[in-house]
Amino acid sequence: MYSQAKVIAGGLAHIPVVIAVFYFILTTFNKRALKFVEEAKTKKPEAKPVEPKKVAVSKIEAPKTEAPKTEAPKTEAPKVVKKKHADVPVNIYRPKTPYEGTVLENYSLLKEGAIGRVNHITFDLKDSDPFLNYVEGQSIGIMPAGEDANGKPHKLRLYSIASTRHGDDFKGNTVSLCVRQLQYEKDGETINGVCSTYLCDIKPGDKVKITGPVGKEMLLPEEEDANIVMLATGTGIAPMRAYLRRMFEASEKEKNNWNFKGKAWLFMGAPKSANLLYEEDLQRYLTDYPDNFKYTKAISREQQNTKGGRMYIQDRVLESANELFNMIENEKTHIYLCGLKGMEPGIDEAMTKAAEEKGLNWSELRPQLKKAGRWHVETY
Asked: Among this protein's residues, is 160 annotated catalytic?
């Protein structure tokens, strides 16, 4: 029989053994756990890079092999020339601080029997400070005197400049406009356009608020051997007049370090012969520069197209389709369209048909010409 003291002493003697066994088990478990964790850590980085790389390659590289196929045709597009006009003056005078120019002359451009009212108006710029300079193809804003029905100043209207940068007198101190008085019927009453009537009525000596110049869409190319095709109706001839004066006027040729050697072709639309504008100058250019200037008229109320209807500018485009598109295929050819906005659909339809005769697609060609800076449109 063991005494109580011996039992207790024996139990105490086994405690170190139990603790040692427990410590051994715990240490072994921890080592295996740590080894498991380390193995898991080393396995994850090996698995992840494989799949994402395969996906990334398929998503990113596949489109790159296709891109050259879609972009290749665009490399054949005509050269861009817009970058050459970075130094063109813009907004020398703004609506809040306009320049007050003096009217030098204001006279009718129409002959007897013409329809409507169209005037040539010239303003003196010599007192402008800073000087209001401009280039061919730009516009200026006119702020008509008076107030509207709400008692507020009339809003400015933009007009294409009809003179070269040297002005009509070639001294560089004037700017000219070609203005048709707007008239329309409303509720049986004839309504006159605010600004156009104001301009047609002003007299030499009057002061007029002028802003600008603005616009880079209708600028001439820098190349002397460029070809210029011009499609105009009515007062849309304004920028065309500036181009032609720059090309063919002797005084302009003396002043400019630019000698036009290409071909200029003007398609001009008017309701009657008496409504043809600057006709004397145009006929003189034909006589003096027969190899560089061609002039085609579409007089709607006096001429008929091939279908027996009125002759419009788009009909003339169709008649000249082959020659016209031979020019357009030349990357040095620029096309300018100016006049009433209503002329655009007809021109577009004519260009579509004309292009088809040459085996071309106008809906594809026109954006290419636009991007290359060779298709210029200003309609109103």
From this structure: yes
Of residues 139, 160, 163, 196, which has the active-site annotation?
Answer: 160
Other beta carbons within 10 angstroms of residue 17's beta carbon come to 9
CATH no. of 99-214: 2.40.30.10
pTM for the predicted model, two decimal places: 0.77
Active site residue 289: no
Reply yes or no on whether 200 is catalytic: no
**How many angstroms separate the CA atoms of 11 and 14, rounded?**
5
Distance of CA 176 to the CA centre of its chain: 24
Active site (annotated) includes residue 159: yes
Q: Select 218-379's CATH number: 3.10.20.440, 3.90.25.10, 3.40.50.80, 3.40.50.300.
A: 3.40.50.80
Q: What is the pLDDT of residues 248-286, one digit of tens each?
A: 999 998 999 889 999 999 999 999 999 999 999 999 999
Query: Which residue in 136, 249, 252, 378 is the catalytic one?
Result: 378
Which one of the listed residues 93, 99, 159, 198 is annotated catalytic?
Answer: 159
d(CA 246, CA 256): 8
pLDDT in tens, 334-373: 999 999 888 999 999 999 998 998 889 999 999 999 999 9
Lowest mean pLDDT: which of 54-58, 69-73, 142-146, 339-343? 54-58
